[in-house]
Design brief:
By secondary structure, the chain is of the alpha+beta class. It has one domain: ACT domain (Alpha-Beta Plaits). It contains three helices and four strands. A four-stranded antiparallel β-sheet has the order 2-3-1-4. The radius of gyration is 13 Å and the shape is globular.
Length: 89
């Protein structure tokens, strides 16, 4: 199974490293990543594999959001099932 992670906030050193470290703590593997800096804003989208997830998915979501708040970033994690349903025609 996969999840989509989005990260938005003011650009600063170590954003990717911090988000990646949080993923690693939970056994989440990053499959794809794209990031850009628009003016002073950092924007990133990640596709991650959650098959090896350690613990509960909601705990991972909470940890990612908490990490974001600690860095003044908005981090959202969406399970692929929810993403797929939202984008069905």
């Amino acid at each position: 199974m996969k999840a989509v992670i989005t990260v938005v906030g003011r650009d600063s050193i170590g954003i990717i490293a911090g988000v990646s470290a949080e993923c690693a703590k939970y056994g989440v593997n990053i499959n794809e990543i794209t990031q850009s800096v628009l003016s002073d804003y950092f924007v990133m989208i990640m596709i991650v594999d959650i098959d090896g997830l350690i613990g509960d998915f909601s705990a991972f979501v909470d940890a990612m959001e908490a990490h974001g708040k600690s860095r003044r970033l908005e981090i959202h994690v969406m399970h692929e099932n929810i993403f797929d349903v939202m984008h069905e025609i």
